[in-house]
Amino acid sequence: MLRMKSVRIVLLVSLCALGMVTRANATDGRLMTDAEYKSFLNDVESKLPAWEGALKKIDPAKSEASYSIGDQIGQARDLALMLVGYARQAVAKQRVKRTVSGELALETFIKGVFDSMQSIVMLEISAGLTLSTLETFAHHTGELDGLISNDVIARVELLEKATCP
What we know:
The structure is a single chain. The chain contains 5 helices and no strands. The chain is an all-alpha fold. The longest helix is centred in the middle third of the chain and has 30 residues, at 67-96. It starts with a helix and ends in a 5-residue tail after the last helix. The relative contact order is 0.14.
């Protein structure tokens, strides 16, 4: 009889703790709900063609850029284009099943595109060139990166505590 009470108490405490963790997860402002995440994926997917088009228009060979600067811009452009392709694949996978590892991958790809675009713009500025309009994407790309970064950091923290939804 005493043992049965102990089991019930442990079970009750466990359920209460689980309820508190669930409420804590629901109130963590960094986490996107499933609906917010779906909207986020739609937003990313809608931006990918614009990023890709702007990157493909960059041709340092048709400018007055030195070979060295042109080569650096070309490498950053090619890396960004590759990452756009990876981001497209990650979005498709996340639509099928949302995973923390998939979010980490998507965050890495978006951050990589943002960083590559920033490198290109910095190289253009330093060389006194205008080869692109990538700076027009900076705000929105950075915003998307911030959203996914906050969410994935919160999810990893929850995984570490074994409480990830």
